[in-house]
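job 3f2a | input accepted
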Amino acid sequence: MVPVKMVMSKKILKVRRGTKVKKVAEMMRDKRVGSILVSDGNNSYAGIVTDADVVRRLVADGLDPETTPVEKVMTTPLLAIEADRSVVDANDIMDQEHIRHLGVIENGKIIGVLSVRDLLRHVYGGWGFV
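job 3f2a | predicted structure (130 res):
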């Protein structure tokens, strides 16, 4: 069994509630990531905003990225998995919940983010596909 913590991204990108979606999208582009956690300011997370959220909840609804706060488009609650659970368990959760990103928890604290891309890199990375 391969634990989630072996394949997750340890770099946690986050913004505070109230951050405009344009800034979040620029961060995603610049950092080459598909998700950013949304902090409520109390060392906890209110949700996650993904590239899909931006398309489905901002662009498709005709909202202005310059004025729309991230909480209008984020996914909440942030679904998470324990760091020692298997990548198979993570894949099952993502499939059942129709999501592509999970927070990773250890001792009650978010320590990383796992994406479908991380799972694919784990499965196919050695073959040069990802």
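job 3f2a | Helices lie at 21-31, 51-59, 87-97, 116-124.
job 3f2a | closed
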